[in-house]
Design brief:
2 domains; alpha+beta; single chain; globular; seven-stranded antiparallel beta sheet; Pnp Oxidase, Chain A; 8 helices
């Protein structure tokens, strides 16, 4: 399809609702404003989530966050704490939170097709006592994200079932896709793929925490 021949789009929520029809009663009722025992248990088992944020200008960002299962601390029924491990210092998510505290979290548990969605408002802390309490291998995170929970609900597993995300049969042979070093070298024209891959391997080996 030519970019100049884009189809008409829906531009208001009322038309969108009419197109899809009424939301089911169960879908509405399942949304909680607190972390019940099932949500708490899922977060304790989860080694990975996606964090979605939006900047003051409306631009959006989504970033993967992972660590050992249970790395996200449930403080109480309405609050979470997420340590921020060492990265590339882009701090896209945290800069967005400074401008717009609303966030979304999507938690995954390997082998479970259902996911957990948590929406709320975030802030960033560098309190030494909090950071030291979440140290791994003797290294404390540089900051942590505090989340005030507004909405909590489980999402059905249709997307993961359709994608067969956890099925070994759909995994590609890694050698069929370029290494990140090759991609970075091609995109930036800085150095060689071999040099970039060596730096990445060293980072994976020594700078996970």
């Amino acid at each position: 399809m030519d970019s100049h021949d884009l189809p008409p789009t829906i531009t208001d929520s009322e038309t969108l609702r009419q197109h899809y029809g009424a939301i089911s009663g169960l879908a509405e009722k399942k949304v909680l404003n607190f972390l019940d025992p099932h949500a708490r248990n899922f977060i304790a088992l989860s080694p990975f989530h996606v964090l979605a944020t939006a900047g003051g200008d409306g631009t959006a960002d989504a970033t993967p966050r992972g660590d050992a299962p249970g790395f996200v601390q449930v403080i109480d029924d309405r609050r979470l704490l997420v340590p921020d491990r060492i990265g590339n210092n882009r701090i896209d998510s945290f800069r967005n939170i400074m401008a717009h505290p609303g966030i979304g979290l999507l938690f995954f548990v390997p082998g479970v097709d259902e996911t957990l969605r948590v929406n709320g408002r975030a802030s960033v802390t560098t309190d030494p006592a909090i950071l030291e309490a979440h140290a791994v291998q003797g290294k404390a995170p540089r900051a942590a994200m505090l989340v005030e929970v507004d909405e909590v609900f489980f999402h059905c597993g249709k997307a993961l079932k359709r994608s067969r995300l956890w099925s070994p049969e759909v995994q590609i042979e890694r050698s069929t896709f370029p290494t990140l070093g090759r991609i970075i070298a091609d995109q930036t024209r800085v150095g060689t793929a071999e040099e970039a891959d060596k730096r990445l391997e060293e980072s994976y080996r020594t700078r996970l925490y």
